Amino acid sequence: MLLVLACLRLLLQVLLDRHYGFHRDELAVLADARHLAWGYVAYPPLTPFIGRIELALFGTSLAGFRFFSALAQCVAMLLAGLIARDMGGHRGAQLVAALATACMPFSLLVGSEFMYVTFDFLWWVLLAWLVVRLRNSDNPRWWLAIGLAVGLGMLTRYTMLFCVAGLAAGVLATTLRRQLVSPWLWGGVALSLLLFLPNLLWQIQHDFVYLDFIRHIHARDVRIGRADGFLSQQLYVNASLFTLPLWLGGLWFVMWAKTAVRYRMLAWLFLVPLALFALGQGRAYYMAPAYPMLLAAGAVAGEHWLARLRPGTARGLRIATGILLAMAAVSSAAVALPLAPVNSIGWRISRAVQDDFAEQIGWRQLVAQVASIYHALPADERAQTGVLASNYGEAGAIDLYGPALGLPAAISGVNSWWYRGYGNPPPTTLIVLGADPKAIRKAPADCTPVGRVSNRQGVENEETRDHPEIFVCRHLRIPWSSLWPKLRSYG
């Protein structure tokens, strides 16, 4: 039944994932997938590598590029059911755990977009399941699999370190500390470090650029309020509000229930990252991967509780649980799946909660506008013209859609584009996207506004609201070698 549910969800996601367009974050991964390396400014290398496989298999098909994202979330859903099974849950608890995980708004959203947070979610859930297997068997060989999960997590997103901190705390605080003398535990540590080593060497070679990146991003998020309400948002951002009793019950179960003593490690895997993210002013969704194990624990705890009730009462509570799961599914799908036509009532409801879908609108039209400006230039000037993008969405869109319209590759100082340089010979004329009009007046060039970004659907998003002007800049008054360091940015 778990496999059937996972396959049904996969089919649903694939059918829906062809709607709207590429998200700006997906455009960045697409570009990086064409420049494989052991590291990137914004993230480790595994997600672009998976993106390269998807490009080889499906090309730039929207649903094809998102296939592995949908698959990763379906596997995570399956693993949640397996966690419930291995904690002693019968079929009902397994199905509740899997369905509750599938109803997580975060899981539905990242299952419809190709981003590193999608695979980060999977590795955390996998690690939780492996920990349960370790506790049930007391076989230290499971540490090798745990090391593999940690290594893959570190190659996906560095926040895996917070999960590792919870794992270490749990080992020291539970009877697992007896295994500190086991060579299998240290073999798992060595395996995780070996997997991570190529990326670590890349960071060393690039002066640990990720630290500069995350310092900038974190300061921005705190400044504009994205880190506000971290603890209160745990009640509804990651898991559905309708499954709140389930995961809270699961947290109580693994912390206090005598029948769950062997699973105390799961409490540490949740509470330590929660505390570290809260102290570090992280964003609420950083904790999303920690919820499936609690949903599974809650399903098992609920099954134990229902077994002690009278049949009629237990039947009523099972029906109530089914209703809550249905409500969780409907509410989460309404805000996190690409269901509603653009600008419909459903679209506006979804937009009130998250703006990811708005950031999927208008990229083809933006590139078409740039191509129109580019081809309107005199032929001799056009041959020496570049397209300078101020953010990774614009740069990724130019790199994806531009070749078919005769545009050169994007030039940008943002993230990993900065390392790709400005071309040889460097351009003498620039079409500039995403620039602040006040800032561009101070640019060491003669810049003229030539258009504004728009989209056919009339959707307001970052491009149309925050920096819609398009400029053509000529007569650069300083050499590119002096200009390029000043253009470096993070986003």
Could you write a compact summary of the structure shown?
The protein is mainly α.
Beta-strand proportion? 5-15%
Mean pLDDT value: 95
Strand order of the largest sheet: 2-1-3-5-4
Based on Cα principal axes, name the global outline: globular
Q: Strand pairing plus helix content: what structural class?
A: mainly alpha
**What's the number of extended β-strand segments?**
5
Task: Give the termini distance in whole angstroms.
Answer: 42 Å
Poorly predicted residue ranges? none
Radius of gyration (CA) equals: 24 Å
Percent in helix = 55-70%
- Biggest beta-sheet profile: 5 strands, mixed
Summed up, the helix count is 25
The H/E string reads: HHHHHHHHHHHHHHHHHHHHEHEHEHEHEH
How many structural domains are formed by the residues?
A: 2
Give me the secondary-structure topology:
Elements: H1 2-16, H2 24-33, H3 46-58, H4 62-65, H5 67-86, H6 91-102, H7 105-110, H8 116-137, H9 142-154, H10 160-173, H11 183-205, H12 209-223, H13 230-233, H14 244-256, H15 264-279, H16 291-307, H17 311-336, H18 345-353, H19 363-376, H20 379-382, E1 385-389, H21 392-401, E2 410-412, H22 417-420, E3 429-433, H23 437-440, E4 446-452, H24 462-465, E5 469-474, H25 480-487
Parallel strand pairs: 1-2, 1-3
Antiparallel strand pairs: 3-5, 4-5
Helix pairs in contact: 1-5, 1-6, 2-3, 2-21, 5-6, 5-8, 5-16, 6-16, 6-17, 8-9, 9-11, 10-15, 14-15, 14-16, 19-21
